[in-house]
Every structure is written in structure tokens, then in C-alpha cells.
Amino acid sequence: LTHLAKREHQQLTVAVLDIDDFKRINDRFGHDRGDQVLLELVDLIRANTRDSDLLARFGGEEFVLLLPNTAPAEALPVMENIRHRVFSADLLPQGRVTISIGLGGLREQDYDITLAIKEADKWLYQAKGSGKNRVCWGPVADDRGQRTEG
């Protein structure tokens, strides 16, 4: 996707999504239920994204979502919708599952996916550090994060 974005001079947004307190879910409900939460989360994300978007498990309870032809500002409401749908879903017998999301974008001058993932990861940690269950994103040039809270 990065080669296509570069060749076509298109935007590409990277979203890093992480289930909040996933260890607590595994400890309280068991690893089988934790695995089921992961599968249901994938289904929920796929149902609320386009066929052209690419979802991959990045490790543990963390996922990366690539959104071609999409600037981070355009991805923000999509990610807010997913965050809200996860919170509203009955994924556990008791309690709610929440996710935190950080966004990053490819820069036209370099189209380096590694930098976009690092940017998204930085904003993910901002989301986690500011209370979880939120989406964070902002320009790399400064450290002001645009946060939307639920």
C-alpha cells in the first residue's frame, strides 16, 4: 500500500489500536474468552471499515489498520466510531471492553511506513496516558494532540 500511495501521491493513515487492560480480561475471564474478544474485535473493525483498508494483528492485543486514500483528520471520525462500537458491544459477560487508538500518516516527502507507525504509536501512548478509551492524533511537528473523548 505504501508503494501505491507514493506512486499515486495519495494519503495513507496508520491507526494503532490496543485493547485497554487486556491482561485483566484474560485474568478475570480466562484466555479462551480473551481470544474470543480478539476475534470479535476484528469482526467489529472489519464491519466498520472499507474493503480497501488493511487490518493486521501487530502483537498481543494490538492491531494496525492501514487506511489508503485517507488523511488522519478524515480517519479520526472512523476511529471514533469503532471506539464507540467496541465500548457499546457486549464482548464480556460483565463489564465493557475499551480500546485506545493512535493515528499517524505517511508524509509525502518520504512515504516511510515505519515513521507513520511510530507516530501512531506515540499517539496511542498519549491516549493510554490520558485515560484510555480514546483516539489521539496530532501533527508531528508539535506535540499537541487532538483528542476526542467518549
Task: Describe this protein's structure.
The protein is of the alpha+beta class. Helices cover 44% and strands 24% of the residues. It has helices spanning 2-8, 22-29, 31-47, 72-88, 113-129, and strands spanning 12-19, 54-59, 62-68, 99-105, 134-137, 146-149. It is globular.
In brief:
The chain is an alpha+beta fold and 150 residues long. The chain is built from five helices and six strands; from the N terminus they run H-E-H-H-E-E-H-E-H-E-E. The model is unreliable at 140-150 (pLDDT under 50).
Q: Which structural traits does this protein have?
A:
about 150 residues; alpha+beta; 5 helices; 6 strands; about 25% strand; globular; disordered C terminus
Strands ordered across the widest β-sheet:
2-3-1-4-5-6
- What order do the helices and strands follow? HEHHEEHEHEE
| Major sheet details | 6 strands, mixed
Dominant shape? globular
Low-confidence stretches: 140-150
The percentage helix is 40-55%
**What gap, in angstroms, lies between the N and C termini?**
31 Å
